[in-house]
Amino acid sequence: MILNILITIFSIVSLLVIHELGHFIIAKRFGVKVEEFGVGYPPRLYGKKIGETLYSINLLPFGALVKIPGADGDDSHLEDYRRYTTKPIWQRALIILGGVVSFWLMAIILLSVVFAMGTSQAISDNEAGSLVNPQVQIMGVAAGSPAEIAGLRVGDTIREFRVQNLEFKISQVKEVQELTEKHQGEEVVLTIQRGKEVFTTSLIPRISPPEGEGAMGVALVRTAEKVFPWWQAPVKGIEATANLTGAIIMSWGQTLGNLIQGKGLPTGVQLVGPVGLGVLINQAAQLGLNYFLQFIAIISIYLAIFNLLPIPALDGGKLLFLGIEKIKGRAIPQKIEENVTAVFFSLLIILMIFVTIKDIAKLF
Fold first, then answer.
1. For the residues 245-272, what does the mean pLDDT come to?
2. What local confidence, expressed as pLDDT, does residue 213 receive?
């Protein structure tokens, strides 16, 4: 348990450190003064000044920090060429985007490693030939469905389907679908592989399931393992990052559309906080290194897109203020920007606390 907690904290903090490193590198590139680059939040445990920048390790392991005068406070004490506020808008925008882009770069690196190590690829039921370990995996579990009640998770592999003393080996999605449809309303036993663990669980496929969920309430995909040469792995990593980015944006668009229409969150969509995220990271780690790295890459992409939202307190909000400055020809008064940012930051903290309480409640 302690090891899992440490892995979760290390994974999240590493992503946030890389995010701040993106801001740091671009700021230095444009000659902007950076007062401090720190891992964690104060109080400070250790600090060493190299050149003009203090590099620190801090007590609270909730992220990282970069202190850039002008971006975080008044920089009027600096010479003009070192001040963030006197830099052209395009340079300030790139400093802000440096953090966001670092998330995407990390996703590309992680996914490239996954492809080089060998990873499961989605294949059709009809695909044959020299397939390595073809299997049927769960890629989605509907909330409140028989599958969720039975304890099935995303990434689980369905090895066998047993009903009425008849046992069927599973290697294609259509086999599960046909057997499920044939035995709706009857108790069935599934043999599940989760990482190195193999176990059985029972459920009763619904006769009249909600639209789009299916009798068990799972989305399935057939996969087989494939290893890519080192020179091709980065290309696959870029492609996968682009595809995942598009899929996440479309998913968020659908969610927003549902909320605007008063339909609520789409089936299976749930908000998770740090605790819920820790549980998911732990589950991915149990499935193996490949799944763990893929999941961290997906989190990195989510963070990149989230940070680009035009909400004050996020990088997208800072870009919004720069856009207003470009249109008006002058910057928004710093006090106003700070107050608006503080309000939205407080709202985000309240939302995170609310979601975290729900995540903790699910554990008991």
1. 74
2. 84
